[in-house]
Design brief:
Elements (H helix, E strand, L loop, with lengths): L2 H7 L51 E10 L2 E6 L4 E6 L1 E3 L14 H12 L3 E5 L11 E6 L8 H7 L4 E3 L8 H13 L4 H4 L2
Parallel strand pairs: 3-6
Antiparallel strand pairs: 1-2, 1-5, 2-3, 4-7, 5-6
Helix pairs in contact: 3-4
Length: 196
């Protein structure tokens, strides 16, 4: 793992996110694309300082989130053109029912959280060893800035909107993700308080 990413991850154990209402994540869809912690334009962030896998399948890429499919899947447009469907690594949100099937418990709340957090925002994507899944989606970590709580995959878990889903070889942050989930579960945040 990159040294800067390793030091960033050391803060995960002592981080405390918003308490109670899990929809306190800032809606970035109408912001000016600056990192709220540093005031730096997200495009000026050195992406090599962001958490990524030990042997990423591709270089980091700056994108804008154009739509949210569900809590763990978004569609993005790359700077310079081209679009991709992104499956957020490490987190599995409840499924939205399609074709008359009912939603799983907390599916709409997880989708709303991701939508309020990412829709319209410019974000950095970083990668692990494997870049696509069986559905031709790009597998990526999502970053809204440089602070530990700007690692969206981790924050989704920490706020109780998802369960950990780590599939090798994309397992770099397994320990951090399990810790985030354990904290959310202990505090009965999100699905851990509503779906038991």
């Amino acid at each position: 793992m990159r040294c800067a990413a390793a030091s960033l991850l050391l803060t995960f154990g002592c981080m405390v996110g918003p308490q109670g209402d899990t929809d306190q994540w800032v809606d970035t869809s109408d912001t000016d694309d600056t990192d709220t912690d540093t005031g730096q334009d997200i495009a000026d962030i050195d992406p090599t300082t962001l958490p990524a896998g030990d042997e990423p399948c591709r270089d980091p890429v700056l994108v804008r989130v154009e739509s949210v499919v569900d809590g763990d899947t978004v569609r993005v447009v790359r700077d310079g053109g081209g679009d991709e469907t992104i499956r957020i690594l490490g987190a599995d949100t409840p499924e939205i029912g399609y074709g008359g099937d009912p939603d799983e418990c907390w599916a709409q709340q997880a989708r709303s959280f991701t939508n309020n957090s990412l829709y319209g925002a410019r974000v950095w994507l970083t990668f692990d060893e494997e870049c696509t899944d069986g559905y031709s989606r790009t597998l990526a970590y999502v970053h809204t800035g440089t602070a530990a709580d700007d690692f969206f995959d981790w924050w989704l878990l920490r706020q109780g909107h998802a369960r950990v889903m780590v599939i090798a070889p994309n397992s770099t942050f397994r320990t951090e993700f399990l810790s985030a989930q354990a904290s959310a579960e202990a505090e009965e945040l999100g699905l851990w308080g509503a779906c038991q």
